[in-house]
Amino acid sequence: MTTENNNALFAKGEKLTNGYFTGDAYLETLLQKDKNNNFVMGAVTFEPGARTNWHTHPKGQVLIVTEGEGWYQEKGKPAKTIKKGDVINIPENVEHWHGATANIKMVHIAITNYEGETNAVWLKPVTDEEYHEANK
Amino acid sequence: MTTENNNALFAKGEKLTNGYFTGDAYLETLLQKDKNNNFVMGAVTFEPGARTNWHTHPKGQVLIVTEGEGWYQEKGKPAKTIKKGDVINIPENVEHWHGATANIKMVHIAITNYEGETNAVWLKPVTDEEYHEANK
Fold first, then answer.
1. E strand segments, A25-91
2. Is the pTM of this model over 0.90?
3. Which residues are in the Cupin type-2 domain (chains A, B) (predicted)?
4. I want to staple A100 with a disulfide (CB 3.0 to 4.6 A). Which of A30, A38, A46, B116 is the partner?
5. Is the ipTM of this complex over 0.90?
């Protein structure tokens, strides 16, 4: 389902059903990898409570939060609040997750660099316990 | 001068005084080139009437318009309107300019790829005649 919102920067895009997300998340692809751009770029909408699985990027990823408020957590560290206007430069091969807070929707642009043909390695879901710990 | 605007996605940043822009344009740097990201990323604010010089990028550039409305023109082609939410994938080595319309401010994120240590080749200013032709 594609939905439009005149107040939003981008269309909401397609609901993600790839098994790498918990809750309702949507992807609007903005740019595919090509000969100049060694990354894919998309706008990801996380409804309240929605988050990625734990995952890594072999060549890192840049997030630009364009709406709302959410969480970014690297394994073994406390979750950090991220909000509209924030830029997060995620290092290579660091296990992490990102998503909305329990009560506030978040939208971010994701610029995901490639190493060869790979840009992400997906791991286990963020459990409700892990997520509630962030939202305490 | 750095100014903040609570409604805007990013800070307005520093006024550009490098001679590569006509009118009042501002840059908020969002990310520097590093080992994972072979690009620099910034938010550029063009007040009405402001525009870049003609220029090229050896490895292309991606623009994401986050506010307002402006122009993008490649040499020898008509100027195209660009507006909030648009993504422009600028090819390598194509002479072009971008900027606000005569009456509407524009803000865009610019993701500028590097070829070696170079990301742009700056050329002549866009004359008032060229700019008014776009705004007809």
1. 25-31, 39-46, 51-52, 55-56, 61-74, 80-83, 87-90
2. yes
3. 44-104
4. A46
5. yes
Locus of tokens 């009042």: B24
> Chain A contact for B121, CB < 8 A?
no
Digit-coded pLDDT (tens) for A6-36: 579 999 999 999 999 999 999 999 999 999 9
- Which of these, A6, A35, A47, A27, lies nearest to A110 by C-alpha position? A27
Write down the architecture of domain A31-134 according to CATH.
Sandwich (2.60)
Interior/surface letters B27-44, b for 16+ CB within 10 angstroms, e for the rest: bbebbeeeebbbbbbbbb
Cβ–Cβ contact B104 with A under 8 A: no
| B124–chain A nearest CA distance, Å | 25
- Whether B31 and A113 lie within 8 Å, measured CB to CB: no
Q: Give the residue carrying structure tokens 């940043």.
A: B13
Question: A101 at the B interface (CB within 8 A)?
Answer: no
